[in-house]
Design goal:
Elements lengths: L2 E8 L4 H14 L3 E4 L3 E2 L6 E9 L12 E6 L2 H6 L4 E10 L6 H4 L9 H7 L3 E5 L1 H8 L5 H9 L7 H11 L5 H12 L3
Parallel strand pairs: 1-5, 5-6, 6-7
Antiparallel strand pairs: 1-4, 2-4, 3-4
Length: 190
């Protein structure tokens, strides 16, 4: 059976590393894995989507509406934007961070209020984490992606050591300790 994940956010938040790390982890666990390229404006500020699919045999990297078992969102409005891709029983792991999109910056729109409550009201299984604050506690705001993967890890049956091994394979050695701390903070946030 194939499982589907979307990683959504804003350019510059680390979605590429998160998808690479997940792909590596799933491969080491014996799954066939397809990871899409980043779709969207990957420079800082644009909406970014990456797909990760795994199972016995995966033929396409694309996740259609209503097919995502998991959505990991680095920004709250991006979580709301892609909710239609989540399965009825899917899991949403999102940062509570809010980054104003261009219409809000220019004054043409307002950032929606109470998004976490509105998403919960739809019956979505949501884990909303202050990933930015936790990442700063770990030593760098650039580890917010790893905080979110730590939270996501609670939904998987893999031993924590498997996640640590994937981090060690994908992250430069000088940043490992900080990322391990970020992972632990995210894992314990749920």
């Amino acid at each position: 059976m194939t499982k589907n994940m979307m990683i959504v956010g804003v350019g510059g938040q680390g979605s590429l590393l998160a998808s690479k790390l997940l792909g590596h982890l799933l491969l080491t666990q014996g799954y066939d894995v397809k990871v899409s390229e980043v779709h969207g404006m990957s420079q800082r500020g644009g909406s970014v989507v990456t797909y990760v699919r795994w199972g016995d045999k995966v033929y396409s990297p694309i996740v259609d509406k209503g097919e995502a078992d998991y959505i990991v969102s680095f920004e709250l409005l991006e979580a709301a934007r892609y909710l239609d891709h989540l399965k009825t029983d899917g899991k949403l792991v999102t940062s509570t961070q809010q980054i104003d999109p261009m219409p809000v910056i220019t004054g043409a729109a307002e950032y929606p209020s109470d998004l976490v409550d509105k998403i919960k009201a739809l019956g979505v299984d949501i884990a909303a984490v202050d990933a930015l604050t936790l990442s700063e506690e770990a030593g760098s705001s650039k580890t917010a992606n790893i905080v979110l993967l730590g939270c996501l890890s609670n939904y998987f049956d893999f031993d924590e050591s498997v996640w640590i091994e994937a981090m060690e394979a994908c992250i430069a050695p000088r940043f490992i300790d900080m990322n391990k701390k970020a992972f632990a903070l995210g894992r314990n946030s749920k």
